[in-house]
């Protein structure tokens, strides 16, 4: 029974990953075809060309991020920690960029950003923190089908352990059933109320590992 369940889980995971990779690759193909048609007609409108290239670049970045996430999953499943590339990172600027990108990807949602003053800078792996935030924002968009506001907030908090940088993403989506709250960070686990929404169940598990390895 356990082997059958594991096989079903693996199949569902691969189906979801294939779906997630097809979307940005499809964008690249469509934008490339549009550019080719315009060039064939002798049209070289710089603004339209720039828009197409921006779409291609964004889709390529999404594909690369998905592949990086899969590589991290492979490392974690093998019991290895992630090799962080630590460098001075402005968390406010990173959050602002990710929020703006999320707003451009979904016109149905109003993405708002509140950052700290002065800016919070730490010795972190910028690319992996960006992946954490993009994952949270993508979930906020995906699980808020009716739109609404998504708030990204960067702030300072203090407790008995010291000073912390706190990053939160708040949406008005479907929420997480109480029975699933203790398992949302388990790899491949998804909420019982999102069966009709595509997803792999690896994003939050990877995000938690990244945050933990940063001491969070």
Structure report:
This protein has 216 residues and is an alpha+beta fold. The protein is 53% helix and 16% strand. The two termini are 37 Å apart. The protein is built from five helices and five strands. A hairpin with a 2-residue loop joins β4 and β5.
- Tell me the strand percentage band: 15-25%
- Helical content stands at 40-55%
Give the low-pLDDT segments. none
Per DSSP E runs of 2 or more residues, the count of β-strands stands at 5
**How can the largest sheet be summarized?**
3 strands, mixed
Order of helices and strands: HHEHEEHEEH
Output the structural class. alpha+beta
Mean pLDDT: 81
User: What is the overall silhouette?
Assistant: globular
The number of helical segments is: 5
- The spatial strand order of the largest sheet comes to 2-4-5
Cα gyration radius (Å): 19 Å
How many angstroms does the end-to-end distance come to? 37 Å
């Amino acid at each position: 029974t356990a082997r059958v369940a594991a096989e079903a889980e693996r199949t569902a995971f691969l189906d979801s990953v294939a779906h997630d990779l097809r979307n940005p690759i499809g964008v690249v193909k469509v934008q490339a075809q549009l550019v080719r048609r315009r060039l064939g007609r002798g049209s070289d409108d710089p603004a339209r060309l720039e828009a197409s290239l921006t779409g291609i670049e964004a889709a390529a970045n999404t594909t690369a991020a998905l592949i990086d996430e899969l590589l991290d999953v492979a490392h974690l499943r093998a019991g290895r920690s992630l090799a962080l590339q630590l460098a001075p990172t402005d968390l406010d600027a990173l959050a602002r960029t990710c929020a703006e990108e999320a707003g451009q990807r979904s016109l149905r949602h109003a993405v708002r950003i509140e950052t700290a003053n002065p800016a919070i800078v730490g010795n972190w792996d910028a690319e992996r923190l960006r992946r954490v935030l993009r994952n949270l924002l993508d979930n906020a968009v995906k699980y808020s089908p009716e739109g609404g506001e998504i708030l990204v907030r960067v702030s300072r908090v203090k407790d008995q352990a010291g000073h912390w940088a706190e990053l939160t993403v708040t949406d008005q989506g479907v929420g997480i059933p109480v029975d699933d709250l203790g398992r949302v960070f388990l790899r491949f686990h998804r909420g019982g109320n999102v069966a009709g929404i595509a997803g792999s169940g690896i994003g939050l598990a990877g995000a938690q590992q990244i945050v933990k390895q940063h001491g969070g």
